[in-house]
Structures are given as C-alpha cells and as structure tokens.
C-alpha cells in the first residue's frame, strides 16, 4: 500500500502542512530586449521558481505570420514550443528531446488551455509564439509551473485575455485527506494526482476549469474533496501571480500612463 | 587598453521605482471595471455577464463614455494622424510593406507619397518598377497613419515635406505606451540634434537636416557626421534608453532632462546600469517637480 | 547570424563611427559592453553559470558522467559541448539557420578546448584505459545581442570554474570489472583549474579598423570577422566567421590585439569569480535562484 504521506504531526515529507504550497517566486519581463528593432524580438517574458522547478517563458508577437508557417486559412496562429534543458534533471544528463511525445502532449495542452482564454478575435491574421524553457525540474508536475509562467509571460506581452490561468495539483492520503501541490517525492510515493488549470474568478463567480488530468484511481466520493483542494490551490496561486503582476505594474505607473 | 567591466549578479541591486501613492489605478486581467449600462468598451476590455472587464494589465482611461485599458507593454495600436517611424520589409505591386511595431505589417501605397521635387506621378508600369529607387527593403522612413483597416493594419502616407526616407542616425525601440502623445513629434533639440519620436515606439535620433534642401524627403546625405554631432546623438540614444529602463514617458522635455543629467558622465559610462538608472530617476524627479 | 535589418545609411553611420573611434553606444573600438556573471545557478547541474554581455544572455550547465576512454587516448577524459539556440534568444534561430550557428559555435569550442595547453584532459582520467570522466557542457542561449562566441566561451569558463566533480576515493581493477568508490561527502570534490581555460574573442573588421565585442548591428556591418581562441599567451584556435577575407598584415595585428585584450579580460574574469566565491562563503548563502 501507499506510504503515508502525512506524519502523525500532520506534516508532509518536506515539512509542509496539507494545504500549503511549495515556495513560489516569479518575475515578469526577465528577457528585456528593447535594443532589438526587428520583428523577431521577444515581446514578453517571465520566470518562475516553484519548489525545485525553474521555468522561463517568452512571447514573440502578435506579429505578421512568418511565411514558413504557411497556414493561411487559420485566422490566429498560436505556436507553442516547450523544451527541457539537458541539465534540468538531477542525476543523468537528459538527451535532447525533439518532437517527443511527452513534449508534444504538453504543447497541445498549453495550446488548448490558452486558446480558450486569449481573446482570439483581436488577433486575426497574426501569429503568436510562446516558448518555454524548463531550466530545472525534479520530475512530475512541471506542467503547472509551465502554465503559470506562460500566464505571466502573456500578461507581460500585453496579450488580451479573459482571466489568469492558474494550474495546481493535489493528491490524497490514505486517510482521505487532500494534499495541495504535490512534490516529486510525494508523487513517486504513489498517491493519485489531480492536475487542473483553472480560471479563478474574482468575487463569487464560479471557477471554470480549462484543463484537467488525473493519474491513478480513487473513490468517486473523494473526487470533490481533491477537486476543491486543487481549486483552492489555484486561488492561492492567483494571489501570488496577481501580487507579482501588480508589483511590476506599479513600477511602470510611477511614470503615469494617464498623462496621455 | 580595453575597457572591461564584469559585475556580479549576486551584488546586483534591485532597482525599483519607490512605489508612491498613485492616483491611477491598475486593472488586471479579468478585473471588473464597471457595469456595462452607461459605458462603451474600448481597447483592452471585454464584456461578460453585463460587466466591462479588463483584458490586459494596465491603467484605465475614460474618454466620455468610452472606457479602455492601456497595457503597460504591447504592440503598437495605431490611430489616424499618428506619426510613426517604420522600416520597409517588402516591396510588392504598388505598395511597400512597413514594419511599424504593430501586430500586422503596415502598408504605404505608391499613391500615398509625394514624389521628389513635387513631381506628379505617371500611373504606368515604369513608375511601379522604379519604386525601389525611392525606398528599398530595410530603408527607414517617417510617415503618418492615414487609415486603420478593419483588421487593425495601418495604411500610411508621406504627403508632407517632413515625412520621408531617413538618412544617417540611430533607431531606438521602446514600448509604444511610453510615448507621450503630443502635437509635435519632430523636434530639433537644443543640444543640436533632431529626434523623431514615433507613436509606435520607434525613435529616430539624427543630425539636423534642412528639410527644404532635401526636396521631397527621399534623398539621403551620406557624408560623414561630425564627431561632435555623433557624440550628442549617441548620448541622446543612451539617455532615451535610460528613460525607457526607468519607465519615464518619452517626449522632448524628458529627453532634455535626461540629457542634462547625463552630462557629468562620459557617454559610454551610461551603458552601466547604475549610471543609467541614476540618470533616468533624476530626470523623473525633475519631471515630477514640474507637475 | 542573427538578423537585424539595417538601411544603407545606418550602416554608413556605424562605419564612420568606427572610423572616429566612437561607436553607436559611445564605446571606443577596444571597449567591451558591461558584463555580468553568476555561478551555481542550476542546482541539478554539477557546475553552472550565467553570463551576460549586455543583452546577450548565456546559461551553461555541466554534468560529469563516467565513461570509457577512447582507445587511442587511453589516459584522457572527454569533454563534449552542445550549444542550444533556444528560441528565447531570437526566433530566427528556429529551424535550420539556428542549428547551423549552433554547430558552428560547438565546433569552435571543441577546437579551442582540444589543445592540451588550454585544457588538460588527463586530469579527467580515473583509471587509464578503463574509466574517465566525460563532461557534458550544455549551453543555452537565452538572449542574443551580438558577440555570442565571446559570451559563450566566458560562460563556459565560469561554469567549469564552478564545476565540482565527485572525488573518486578508490578505483580498483577487479578482473575485467572496474570498482569505483565515490566520496560520500558532497563537499569533497575535485575542481578544475580555470586559469588557463581559453577565451574566444570575436574581432570584426568594419572599414579599415577592427573592433572587439560587436553588437548585432556591428556584426551586420562588418566585412569580415574572425574568432580567436586565447589561452594565456598562446592562441589555441583561429577561425573566420561570416564571409570576407583578411589581409595577412591585418591578421597579425588582429592576433596581437586579441592576445593582449583576452589576457586582460581573463584577469578580470578570474578576479570576479574569486570575489564571488569569497562572498558566497562569507555570507554562507546557498541561494540558487537563477534571477534575482
């Protein structure tokens, strides 16, 4: 049976309580390239440290579709590329993955998630490129960090969206207590893991979920519990993102955009 | 001897504008701005459940009943009458495609330019073939926004002597939201050089040229620029980058303030981040005192 | 190369600037842009560094692995480089163009590190003929603002300085099998002497003059450029990049220029690395945050 994920004192393996997130640090506009005047510059970027995972996301566009993209029928072209650095994982060096199934899956998921929140009609005929580089990770739920970093980068680039997208994971102990933000250790110990990417609304609006993924099995009666836990996590992450975004914004606003 | 300076990132000070109580309220993505009832939604907003919500992060702006949110950083969204600086990316039949830092390439029709010397255009094939003589790929030009198409792309015109091909100088690119909208975007600064502050965030710094002598704005002067002018141009360029790094609105006065603040340093010292921020912040302080 | 369009007039402006010894950002022909460095940025790598020259932003991570020496060099270890033109840098790198540039830089690094004066591969040997260390040096270009060769070689040097290879306490040959014992103590490790590790230096010829540390625009204006690998007083490699040709005399001057400049740069770099190390020790910060 699964090893107990919670000690008698109610602490997890890394000393967190059941409803605590791992450490999150984030920053917008890390790849500032105001020196470039060509079309292929980086228009927005963000960096996030979540637990042991470090991710950089950058945006290029919206811009005139490059000729190589060729798809003329599609009104809005959204390219996503995810890469893992060869040194990103502990232990053995990772092979350079190109067009692997794992990356392809993450890319498609990201595409679907963000196409549902970006106000696509504003970007007809143009192309938007999202590039993700995972610099460091300990396996497991890096998709959450990727989604959260991508949200920040899109906001940094001034892309019109309906809402922040926040992603989070949750698991379940043997006693049926939901655990927030599953670490790699907890994941390999074998609890079920639920991953969601949600649009947590401000106020008392219902959250809507853009992405959901479940690994392993548990009783249906527990689903609500674990789902609620995930949603709570998304709200917490939203607060963290919001703080970073507002902090970044106030630096700009000192120069008073309203004087226009 | 070479000049080499290596800084340690662990010692990098965190430059942040000290946050003051600001009247302007920041709206973030998804935040409700107001009920829909009496307002119209503009750029950077969307409608949901009867509320106008912000779709970007920025400051709300209200003009009569139109509410829009200006994002801190974004591509240029053109308006008719804006002055822009752009670069030719492609020549096709009867039109130039121009990169104006917008979402889509802008268009300059051959019918929207004044030919050199005020010559009238002969509408024939030869005329179209000689387009490259006027403007070729990668040339820079200043122009005005004539029209905004429904898909958001811009059509430009250069039907004034002040617009046309740009000659020697330096192009700087900043966020379009940092450009202050003013009556005049062409300035001859008191330090003896000229700047064109494009609404699209492209800024052109160049020696002063006499417009009348240029005859229609497609001739170029390729004589060496004097060392004095060159120093001033580069200094102004570094100052504009300092302003941009400190998020100071860019217009003639702020550029001159930064220029004056920078005088105690060598031009190349302005590349160092601490000097750059000092110049930017000092200029910002002086602007705040002005208000 | 990274593509940044420039009109003829802009190019002429840059050309005259180089002639006047006053470049487009105020530097003289021999000046470098401000640089920044941080080592130990990636916890999952045994050695890592981030190095920036202005906006050219490079991240290097090194992982050592145990390998078998190649039969013709039984008492030498191995080192392998891989440059990744991450799309974060410039999307021009996407597709073939990026791969070409990446393999060009990778080859140049390989060449310059293959000289025994520059890097002693023997120190990576554990048990001749049977076991050696293979260093995988992986390079990510986060952002490019010109002068990639210099930035990458400096970043690699910093990461090698930062590298900690686990110490092998005993290596025994038992029949045909090798029995390795690695030290349990993570602080007990071998380091590499970084002092004479080579630096690549790009020199661009614009008009009649040579400049160091070219920006993207200057790279576009140059008629010919060369990369010289310098280790101490010796050059370990020389390679022309992009088209164009040099006059033999120019080449001689160019090599003199790179040797003196690289020597000075090397001193500064080692000083900064040592200063960082002292600070990290005295503050006891085990901070591993990549961007602070």
From TrEMBL, chain A:
Protein name: Exoribonuclease phosphorolytic domain-containing protein
GO molecular function: RNA binding
Ranges of residues in domain Exoribonuclease phosphorolytic: 20-159
GO cellular component, as recorded: cytoplasmic exosome (RNase complex); nuclear exosome (RNase complex); nucleolus
UniProt superkingdom: Eukaryota
Family to which this protein belongs: Belongs to the RNase PH family.
GO process annotations (BP): nuclear mRNA surveillance; poly(A)-dependent snoRNA 3'-end processing; rRNA catabolic process; U4 snRNA 3'-end processing
InterPro entries, per the entry: ExoRNase_PH_dom1, ExoRNase_PH_dom2_sf, PNPase/RNase_PH_dom_sf, Ribosomal_Su5_D2-typ_SF, RNase_PH
One Pfam family, short name: RNase_PH
From TrEMBL, chain B:
UniProt-listed InterPro entries: Exosome_cplx_N_dom, Exosome_RNA_bind1/RRP40/RRP4, KH_dom_type_1, KH_dom_type_1_sf, NA-bd_OB-fold, S1_RRP4
Origin superkingdom: Eukaryota
K Homology domain sequence ranges: 169-206
One Gene Ontology cellular component annotation held by this UniProt entry: cytoplasmic exosome (RNase complex)
Domain Exosome complex component N-terminal span(s) in chain numbering: 30-60
Matches recorded under Pfam families: ECR1_N (PF14382), KH_6 (PF15985), S1_RRP4 (PF21266)
Organism for this UniProt entry: Chironomus riparius
Domain RRP4 S1: 75-147
Identification of the protein by name: Ribosomal RNA-processing protein 4
Lineage: Eukaryota, Metazoa, Ecdysozoa, Arthropoda, Hexapoda
UniProtKB/TrEMBL annotation, chain C:
Name used for this protein in its record: Ribosomal RNA-processing protein 42
Alphabetic keyword roster: Cytoplasm, Exosome
Highest taxon above the source species: Eukaryota
A GO molecular function held by the record: mRNA 3'-UTR AU-rich region binding
Pfam family of the protein (one): RNase_PH
Family: Belongs to the RNase PH family.
Primary localization class, coarse: cytoplasm
Cytoplasm in keyword set: yes
Subcellular location(s) per record: Cytoplasm; Nucleus, Nucleolus
Domain Exoribonuclease phosphorolytic, chain residue ranges per copy: 31-166, 197-258
GO BP field: exonucleolytic trimming to generate mature 3'-end of 5.8S rRNA from tricistronic rRNA transcript (SSU-rRNA, 5.8S rRNA, LSU-rRNA); nuclear mRNA surveillance; nuclear polyadenylation-dependent rRNA catabolic process; rRNA catabolic process; TRAMP-dependent tRNA surveillance pathway; U1 snRNA 3'-end processing; U4 snRNA 3'-end processing; U5 snRNA 3'-end processing
One cellular-component annotation, GO: cytoplasmic exosome (RNase complex)
